[in-house]
């Protein structure tokens, strides 16, 4: 087996999978913020259900990645299908059930991640509500003061009261802001407020004072809303995405590691496993010890009964090479045949193959890896590549899938934002009991990209 090539394919598969997590978190955070905006930043049961739905989708994806990784390794080495299926299931189950020193396994870790996601979002919205209450109280006090001033008292008292009021506003913001980026946003809001108040202190007209108070309140409210949205996006995209990617990377690497051991441990020619450091290895740690220990089989070569059965730390991408003891054996790279390439190919490569692209032309023999998804996107563009993938998946499935409710709802909102009202033809399509992904693409191409299309069938014929 050419384990270096298979590992390169796995690393690329992992990178593409983590990129997909990023895209999903980006899409969800934008959609969720739009929902909050429409509901006045209140977290109703419907919004909580959306958070749960997305979180459960991501946790299922992690489990799928583990199974796909085990399949990648096992199917490359085991020819008997029933034996391969059994090994894949055993490896996936072992990774899911493995309990770490902190007492958590994958299921409990993912459950904790989902729980923390919900708590963090509630806290972000609660903090925004508290700030809104503080601001409302302070603006009321300021307006009351202004309306009760007479003549010169207006300017004199105003100059004395404003600094304290601004400081109270600043303190209320600091109490709920954790992220430096969000604090910078609030500082910009305060500068706008202070600018308006300087105008207010030079004004003797109560009508003007009241108008400026209204402008000031609007500025603060807008700043508060932007702050909530930034906080929600930061929590989902920066905080929770990072944790989810750590879980996904660690456990899929564990699946590759364990599957590699399981498919070779019964091979009498394999005497052990050499621990090799990843090129992304940042600093010395336990992996350096594992890569340099000598049990008499060579540097870093662990006997079968001494090799670690899981990764020693999170994010570990160090890897094993099975060592075979044969006299005069020379190491060489094996040429992977078409069937093997099909087994280890990531989803986007399979999508392209379904469109008639030769899978061997997508394999870079120099790098021992498939052409990266990122490089393909750079060649044709992100939107075009998404269309290509959709067509490929449809070709593989043999039919257009039914569009998800959340995708249909998102398109309806987007159309309403663009046109003010949803065009009648689009409304007629998107409000059917069942909407196919073909019809969803038809709406996008016609109403966003300006394609001259008469029906979804015409688009289907173009794709074909």
Summary of the model, kept short:
The protein has 464 residues and is mainly alpha-helical. The chain has helices spanning 3-38, 45-77, 81-97, 106-147, 152-174, 180-201, 206-264, 286-292, 338-344, 347-354, 373-380, 382-397, 405-419, 424-430, 437-447, 456-463, and strands at residues 270-276, 301-303, 319-324, 363-364, 369-370. It starts with a helix and ends with a helix.
Please, could you describe this protein's structure?
The protein is mainly alpha-helical and 464 residues long. The protein is 69% helix and 4% strand. The chain contains 16 helices and 5 strands. A 3-stranded antiparallel sheet has the order 2-1-3. A two-stranded antiparallel ribbon has the order 4-5. Strand 4 (363-364) and strand 5 form a beta hairpin. Helix 3 packs across helix 7. It is globular.
Mean pLDDT: 79
Poorly predicted ranges: 326-334
Question: What is the total tally of β strands?
Answer: 5
The radius of gyration computed from the alpha-carbon positions, rounded to a whole number of angstroms, is 29 Å
Derived from helix and strand composition plus strand pairing, the structural class reads mainly alpha
User: What share of residues are in beta strands?
Assistant: under 5%
Helix content: 55-70%
Straight-line N-to-C gap:
38 Å
Q: Treating each run of at least 4 consecutive H or I residues as one helix, how many helices?
A: 16
- The strand order across the widest sheet is 2-1-3
Biggest beta-sheet profile: 3 strands, antiparallel
* Global geometry: globular
Helix-strand pattern: HHHHHHHEHEEHHEEHHHHHH
